[in-house]
Amino acid sequence: MLVMTKADYEKILEHCKKGLPNESCGLIGGVVEDGKRYIKKVYLLTNIDASNEHFSMDPKEQLAAVKDMRANGYQLLGNFHSHPESPSRPSEEDKRLAYDSKVNYLILSLMDLENPVLNAFHIDEEKNVTREELVIE
Question: What is any one GO biological process for this UniProt entry (predicted)?
Fold first, then answer.
């Protein structure tokens, strides 16, 4: 189970809407307690591909985010990106690029701007996808 605050959800949503028509991306850091993963900080990163079909995180921003996580005692819980024109599920490219089976992959669909859909996924070494329970409180 992945738990995030309403404020962090709004932060991700606003970042992704601002990035349109391109995909937006970022990292999530936090803590694991009693088997639950709690997002404590959202890192908004630049999609250096500037594309509506794929993303690459700015390496300098990525490094700064990881350093900040370490300084705050957080661990990398995963990443997020938006799908401006497709559903909230991993594409074949998303699965191919999912290198870490220990993290969650959050995908925010903005196909219908009035009804954005955020889902969290786990992608294992064999590229099998399972939906992770996501709680926004």
Answer: proteolysis
